[in-house]
């Protein structure tokens, strides 16, 4: 539920005693009188996010995949993970391909300078690369120098995620 809470934290339609603060404690006041939520919508949103299927890769680009491995992208952007035991069969020991380890890494100057939760100003959680082809907002901004043919192959591979 923390991810759903964080995603809806600034939603003007959620307020009242059921709305949670950053530290998951309940608010003691009603910042927007008359606009209340009894947590049902937040719980439904949490379920939606929990069971949302990941984006499937569009194609395989072996040359780019090899570059991805050779330059160390797969050190943090782990291709395949398997969930642990879960009472819900849909989440029980499921293999998926997020291209992430979901861990915090100290990335030095690439850090965003924001300390949040357990993350310091030079640390960031490894973002999953699934669905990368649908976004233009990326952390890596070309600071890694690749040979032209490696760069093209890597970009084709990443574009398929």
Supply database-style keywords:
2 domains; two-stranded antiparallel sheet; 161 residues; 6% strand; single chain; alpha+beta; two-stranded antiparallel ribbon
Explain how this protein is built.
The structure is a single chain. The protein has four helices and four strands; from the N terminus they run αααββββα. It is α+β, with helices and mostly antiparallel strands and 161 residues long. It folds into two domains: 50 residues, no CATH class; 98 residues, no CATH class. The chain has a two-stranded antiparallel sheet. The longest helix has 12 residues. The chain starts with a helix and ends with a helix.
What is the radius of gyration computed over CA atoms, rounded to a whole number of angstroms? 19 Å
Low-confidence parts lasting 5 or more residues at pLDDT below 50? 12-20
Quaternary status: single chain
User: Structural class of the helix and strand makeup?
Assistant: alpha+beta
Could you say how many structural domains there are in total? 2
Number of helices: 4
Largest sheet: 2 strands, antiparallel
- Number of beta strands: 4
The order of strands across the largest sheet is 1-2
- Element-level helix/strand string: HHHEEEEH
Estimate the helix proportion, in percent. Answer: 10-25%
Cα separation of the termini? 27 Å
Strand share of the residues? 5-15%
Shape: globular
Average residue-wise pLDDT: 74
């Amino acid at each position: 539920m923390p991810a759903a809470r964080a995603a809806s934290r600034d939603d003007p339609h959620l307020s009242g005693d059921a709305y949670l603060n950053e530290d998951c404690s309940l608010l003691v006041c009603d910042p927007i009188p008359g606009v209340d939520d009894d947590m049902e919508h937040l719980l439904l949103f949490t379920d939606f996010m929990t069971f949302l299927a990941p984006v499937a890769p569009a194609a395989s680009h072996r040359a780019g995949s090899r570059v991805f491995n050779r330059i160390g992208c797969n050190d943090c952007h782990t291709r395949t993970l398997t969930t642990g035991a879960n009472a819900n069969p849909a989440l029980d020991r499921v293999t998926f391909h997020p291209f992430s380890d979901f861990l915090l890494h100290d990335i030095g100057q690439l850090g965003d300078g924001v300390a949040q939760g357990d993350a310091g100003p030079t640390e960031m959680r490894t973002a999953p690369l699934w669905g990368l082809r649908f976004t233009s907002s990326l952390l890596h901004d070309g600071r890694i120098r690749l040979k032209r043919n490696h760069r093209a192959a890597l970009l084709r591979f990443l574009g398929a995620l």
